[in-house]
Amino acid sequence: MLVCQFGALLHWVTLLSGLVECLFFAGIAFGWASLAVILKREGYFNDFCINATGANSSVYTDCSGQDEQLSLVFTIASTMSTLLALPNGFFFDHFGTMTTRILAM
Question: Membrane spanning segments where (predicted)?
Fold first, then answer.
């Protein structure tokens, strides 16, 4: 009876810890649009912003290079997430949830 209760408790702990992980770490992928605005405001990749001259001789700051770099970061992160799903599934099948999560950390 004690083993059955421990197993049920372990399932609930695994579920709750998975929810907490998603709450804290899934926002990077799903909240990227909001995060990119904050990263621009904080000055990430400001080196790629250049002063440009408009058609009426007005000077403005062109930050398209900064946008490209932030898009590149998102593209690489989402691609790696997809590519690592297969090895992650292999680790889940052969070593279990706890070992896979420890390796992921």
Answer: 12-39
